[in-house]
Amino acid sequence: MHPRGIQMTFDWSEYLNLAQELAGQTGTSASEEAKLRSSISRAYYAAFCKARNYLRDVDRDTAIPKTGKAHGYVADKFKSSMDKRRRQIGINLDRLRVDRRKADYDDFVTGLSPMVVTALKLAWQVISTLKLL
User: Fold this and answer.
1) What is the CB neighbour count within 10 angstroms for residue 121?
2) Residue 120 lies in a domain
3) Which of 34, 50, 56, 86 has a CA between 20 and 30 Å from the CA of residue 73?
4) Which DSSP string corresponds to the chain?
5) pTM of the predicted structure, to 2 decimals
6) pLDDT in tens, 27-78
7) Angle subtended by helix axes 32-57 and 84-105, to nearest 10
C-alpha cells in the first residue's frame, strides 16, 4: 500500500527477486508482498499435493486428471465423502485455492497478512487430517 493510502499495483518482477533470493543468489531482497503472496501459494500447493497423493496412493484413485482440472477434482472428491474429516479437507482446499488464485493473479490483494495466517492454518489442517485418515 502506498503511504498516501493509494493501492499500488503489485510489481510482478518481485517474484524474480524472490526466486533469486530463494536460490541463494545475492542481489536485491524480495519485497514483503512477494513473500506473503508466495507463502499463500506454497501453502495451497503443499495441501493440494498431499491430498492429491493421498487419493492416488491410499485410495488408489486412477481418475485424477493430469491437467489443471485436478485441483477441482481433488477438492470435490474429498467434499463428496461421507466422512466429515474428508469433507473438511475438501472445503479447506477450496478456500485455499480461492486465496491462492488471488495471490497468484490479482494485481491488488488487500489483507495479505491475515490471508497468510489463514492459509497456513488451513494447509496445516489438511495435512494433519490426512495423517489421521
Assistant:
1) 13
2) yes
3) 34
4) --TTSPPPPP-TTHHHHHHHHHTT--SPPPPHHHHHHHHHHHHHHHHHHHHHHHHHHTS------SSTTHHHHHHHHHHT-SSHHHHHHHHHHHHHHHHHHHHHH-S--S-HHHHHHHHHHHHHHHHHHHHH-
5) 0.85
6) 667 788 888 999 999 999 999 999 999 999 999 999 999 999 999 999 999 9
7) 140
**Residue 128 belongs to domain spanning:** 32-132
The amino acid occupying position 45 is Y
| CB hemisphere CA count around 55 (13 angstroms) | 24
Taking the CA atoms of 84, 116, 101 and 26 in sequence, report the sign of the dihedral they define. negative
Cα distances from 31 to residues 6, 10, 65, in angstroms, run: 18, 10, 35
Give the separation between CA 83 and CA 87, rounded to whole angstroms: 6
Is 88 in contact with 110 (CB distance < 8 Å)? Answer: no
Residue 75: give its domain's CATH number.
1.20.120
Residue 6 lies in a domain: no
Q: Is residue 4 part of a domain?
A: no
CB 96 within 8 A of CB 48: yes
